[in-house]
Write a structure and sequence with these properties.
- The chain is an alpha/beta fold and about 400 residues long.
- The protein folds into 2 domains: about 5-190 and about 370-389, Glycogen Phosphorylase B (Rossmann fold), CATH 3.40.50.2000; about 195-370, Glycogen Phosphorylase B (Rossmann fold), CATH 3.40.50.2000.
- The protein contains 15 helices and 13 strands.
- It has helices at about 30-40, 70-80, 80-90, 90-115, 125-130, 155, 170-175, 220-235, 255-260, 280-285, 305-310, 325, 340-355, 360-370, 375-389, and strands at about 10-15, 45-55, 65, 120, 140-145, 165-170, 185, 210, 240-245, 270-275, 290-295, 315-320, 330-335.
- It has a 7-stranded parallel sheet, sandwiched between helices. Strands 10-9-8-11-12-13 form a 6-stranded parallel sheet, with helices on both faces.
- Helix 8 (about 220-235) crosses helix 13.
- The chain is globular, with a radius of gyration of 22 Å.
- The two termini are about 20 Å apart.
Length: about 400
């Protein structure tokens, strides 16, 4: 441990409305899980962390919340839960959420100005609210964003105006979506607790390829389906594609599941549902021959890839976004995207045929060398200290 005088006080601000115990268990929100793990892990690196979240959340560190009473009164008047309102009236939900987020960020800046904290870390995708007011905070402020910066209009229209602020990237690829000259203070890959994932490194024959993630078009599930079908046309022993994740068939604007995925389900293309339990996820990945990651957009990181490596399972992925920063010649196979989906699927199919050449223990070793939770937390703590100095 560092000397006591090296202790620093950090406000870790996660303004996304999903950071509330009444919401988090019903949604997919990996940045929230990461924030909770980061808060806990920083304690091991002499950082006194206070976690700012919109609503109360289960955490081992002090937790400061926004005033949710007016939001809750609106829900009570409608007879809705948070998720009900999000589905029925997303514009109203977002409007109320951003009011809460603004108050939370304001409170963190004010407390820092009162010398309660040495640094403020704004951690999730609502930091566009925090950007213009960072100038009023007397202590260092640093920002982490979890999407490609050019992914949505409300991000790409404002983030370049504040490129001089302190920015952390999730990957070197993510940096390419911000203007040249952005003030990057560090690149910090995500990490996982090694004890949470048992490595499945046995040599048993495995009969399926795993897809795990949100079932939306940019994740490329349609390419994975076509790749497995092509492979099975000539394979002596057919493989299954097992699909785990959340689809959005209840969303009017998203017809991807109904039109491109559901009609292709078969004996070999199987949807197993949404997996939230960590042990089940570990087993799903560990018992797979490979994880397939055919994302067609610029993935800023890709948590499922390091979950796969932690489980001892190699990765097949398209060379887009940060995927090439995770996949190496010893832990998986990278595939270049072709002009046509069929050509891309054929390349993925060839990778499936060659994936047995990857050693599963090497996958786990690579995870331990590059992507542990402690490495992630230490790098944050070191970066905080540099900014405070």
């Amino acid at each position: 441990m560092s000397p006591k005088q090296n202790k620093i006080r950090v406000a870790l601000v996660v303004p996304h409305i999903f950071l509330h115990r009444d919401i988090i268990s019903n949604v997919i929100f990996s940045p929230g899980t990461l924030a909770l793990e980061l808060a806990k892990g920083l304690l091991q690196h002499d950082v006194d962390v206070t976690l700012f979240t919109p609503g109360p959340i289960d955490t081992v560190v002090p937790n400061i919340n926004a005033d949710m009473s007016y939001f809750e009164a609106e829900l009570a008047a409608r007879g809705d839960t948070y998720i009900d309102l999000l589905k029925k009236h997303p514009f109203i939900f977002v409007s109320l959420a951003r009011q809460v987020q603004s108050e939370l960020i304001s409170q963190a800046y004010q407390r820092a100005n009162n010398d309660e904290f040495d640094l403020v870390h704004i951690y999730t995708n609502e930091e566009d609210i925090a950007l213009p007011f960072a100038v009023f905070c007397k202590k260092p402020v640093v920002f982490t964003h979890h999407d490609p910066f050019n992914f949505m209009a409300r991000y790409k229209s404002v983030f370049p105006k504040y490129s001089q602020l302190n920015w952390l990237s999730l990957s070197l690829s993510q940096r390419k979506t911000m203007p040249q000259g952005t003030n990057w203070v560090e690149n910090i890959y995500h990490g996982l607790n090694p004890d949470d994932f048992t490595p499945f490194t046995d040599t048993n024959e495995r009969d399926y390829i795993a897809f795990l993630g949100r079932i939306v078009q940019p994740k490329g599930l349609h390419l994975a389906i076509e790749a497995v079908n092509i492979y099975n046309q000539t394979a002596a022993k057919p493989l299954k594609l097992k699909i785990a994740g959340k689809h959005y068939s209840d969303t009017e604007k998203d017809t991807y599941w109904q039109k491109q995925i559901q009609p292709k389900l078969s004996d070999t293309i199987e949807y197993v549902g949404f997996i939230s339990d960590l042990k089940q996820k570990n087993e799903f990945l560990g018992n797979a021959k490979a994880l397939i990651m055919p994302s067609t957009f610029d993935e800023p990181f890709g948590m499922v890839m390091i979950e796969s490596l932690a489980s001892g399972t190699p990765i097949i992925g398209l060379a887009s976004g940060a995927i090439p920063e995770t996949i190496t010649k010893t832990n998986g196979i990278l595939v270049d995207k072709s002009e046509s989906d069929t050509e891309t699927a054929q390349k993925l199919s060839q990778a499936i045929a060659n994936i047995n050449s990857i050693d599963r223990q090497t996958c786990r070793n690579d995870f331990e060398a590059r992507f542990t939770l402690d490495q992630m937390c230490k790098k944050h703590a070191d970066t905080y200290r540099k900014l405070i100095k």
